[in-house]
Records
---
Amino acid sequence: MVQEMLYTKRINALRNKMAKQGLDAVWVVEPANRRYLSGFKAIDPQLTESAGSLLITQDEAILITDSRYGAEAKAEAPDFEVKVVKGEAAQVLGSCILETGAKRIGFEEDYVTYQLYKELVEKLDHGSKLFPIQGLIKDMRQIKDPYEIEALKASAEMISSIMGEIIGWLTPGLTEREVAWQIHTLAYRGGAEDLAFPPIVASGPNAALPHAIAGDKKISTDEPIVLDMGVKLNGYCSDITRTVFLSEPSAEFKKIYSVVREAQKEAF
């Protein structure tokens, strides 16, 4: 019940912003925005394969999806009228827009593909137009409500625990890939929805690569090991990075660390 009220509050806040911008409707496809407003958790398999769209007017809230996600949508988004459809997404969305009578429709210009944009424009009548919302929903998401703050804390606590387990488990001879797999295992075993991003396990020279890909290099006692990982829990991501040694760091490394640490202190 608390979460249902949360989504109602968010939808109402969006409607207030829509009214100020003169928008009759907002079309939402970006997965994080879609979940933020509805509770619908499905992710898009790829940019050109959407799990669904939201169409929100001052009076209606519609979730359009296909048969793969119909049951989840109805269970997770009770504030929305769920339309489980067949056929082209643009065709169905265009019909819904015509039914609502909306003329000025906001859309996520930084996520909608040009192809989908063109297809929808072709389905609209001459009185309806699409307008970029320019981060309207993302601006709402910048200010976290109490539920989001707790979700972020839980995600951070989980990844902090995993980092501690990984550091205690590391032994010379393990490959970077084996360590990365252990991070996956601990995350899913702990109840994470997913990893926030592919974990970075970079040892020795690889530690100098900002986004190194874990490979078959074996870790050893006399080199730095960079661990960068995060989990997605209740829709919210965490991110933690640590540099560790399996033995006493060299004097040169300690000096470099000290310089970087002091620079960080000055910056903050």
---
Amino acid sequence: MKLTIYPTWAWTGNHAQALALAARENGIKVRIVMPDISIPQKIAATKGYGAEVVFSGSTSPEREAAAARVIAETGARLVPPYDHPDIMLGQGTMGLELQEQVAELLAAESKESGHGSKQEATTTTKKKPKTGLDAIITPCGGGGMLSGVALSCEGTGIRVFGSEPMFQGADDGKRGYESGQRVASVSTLTVADGLRTPVGEHPFSVIHGRRLVSGMFSVTEEEILAAMRLVLERCKMVVEPSACVPLAAALFDEEFRALVEREGGEEGWELGIVLSGGNVGVDALGRMFGEAK
């Protein structure tokens, strides 16, 4: 199986941080609801941008209840992290950028290798070079990113896949996708803390209802950490576990790899992988890989 991988970045935890920064720049008071088990780096960064952090329980209903209390007390307007069409479209712009960047890269490679020259035009044995991505795989928590990227690829021929941890039922998106019924509640302590939330109603309508996502895959905690170690040691990039879930699926999920081999043939796929975050501390890295030995 041949996969040419193009990573792109989209930071989990940064909805809170981006909203905090935007509010500060515009002189607006903002309160951010965060689970009380959020990693210290996310909390510190959000406070650092001037937000007041309101803590809640770890489940989606607990977070929603805390947000409702803030709204009732202050009259504030809720800006959801994923379950809104505007948020989905905003997150989907990464799909547009990734498509453009890979097309430019492949065009440059084709030019350097001499494809498209007059000499080659007389040859029928060489295969036509690819001009863009075959597929994109993203992490899936609430589904805003996945559904947005899927919308960005609609009508392009680029297939879009989602990936999740399977620990303690964190693969709600996969289960909902396969059953046709959205799973409304999730309670999990997967190491991929940015993906501990159920898929929202609006994202699910795109992921399953419009069938713009071609499949969902899930991976183990060990596979996530193995992918994370690879990125840290070989790519020299600081990433959090949630970011590494799609890479883990590409590396270790036999169903996904069989799909690429079956449909990509000898040429394989040009695969875009969204690495969705770098919110992790040195202390946490030590614990993760110390326990993994």
---
Amino acid sequence: MGPLAGIRIVEMAGIGPGPFCAMMLSDMGAEVIRIDRLSHKGTGHAANVLNRGRKSIALDLKNPAAVAATLRLIASADGLLEGFRPGVMERLGLGPDICLERNPGLVYGRMTGWGQTGPLAHTAGHDINYISIGGALGAMGYSDRPPAPPLNLVGDFGGGAMYLLTGMLAALVEKGKSGKGQVIDAAMTDGTASLLSPFYGLMAMNMWTTDRYSNKLDGGAHYYGSYECSDGKYISIGSIEPQFYALLLQKCGITDEAFLAQQDQSQWPELRNKLTDLFKTKTQTAWCDLMEGTDVCFAPVLDLKEAPAHPHNRARETFIDIDGVTQPAPAPRFSRTQGQVQSPAAIAGEHTESILQDWGFSESDIVALKSVEAI
């Protein structure tokens, strides 16, 4: 059933980090209902993994009856999450003050790029912008070209959704002591900066510079990076520790004494060039046969289609199939209360009436909402 079984969450439909957080809550057993716009009713796709595990109700939130119905749903929920610009929920009549007055125990999660306050709070933006001022984007990529965006994993999902999830879970735990809800202001800029905490520590200890591609973990070190093979595929090595580095040299048959100066940063570019040439002498499969499963700290670089077939992922059932759609299984894993994917993604408004019934609305209530075109 999952460790969050019995927890009820209202999700205001959005994009990116909000749905990802809701997916995680559902995967861990919470009952999450998604409120979609009535104008979007009938849209969506069952293969949209980000929306899995939740039922959908479509409401016209410009209609006072729909707002009243939403507040009634919120009144019996443990948490709410929304990802609108600051002030939108307030203008809808669904701001935290109103919702917490109706339900003092509500955990009210707010997901934005810039945060609820600050000079950029009301400005449009996307992941790449948030991780830019957070300091992450400027630390990634090669030194001789613009910083490379790491998909939208760092801001939207790492610095955004996972911090909203952590905040909501912490607030739910605290609510168990105090009986009171609270508002979580999760900003992707804040979360991105938080993810960089170790690197600020390294800078303070003079163990990291702001020069891209010149540090131990940003590709600057020859022993930590990815390399092309003879078949055009890639491998990754992370032989940081001396014993793992020694094994790398042994497995690769390297006897060049220049490689003994592992931590001499002035030698890193030349040693990387030598490894580049070496790894192009064999195919990815050949290097896997030689080093995978050893303490070299090695792995093949796989694409999204290849990853599910890797033997380790297959053994752990890291990927699952839901109605013909290959997707990551719920994570993390729990020894007693393992979560599961509750359902494929819902079409907008697919469960409007059943949600209202399950959450305490009578048939006459539903008829009344239909009569004023609130649903």
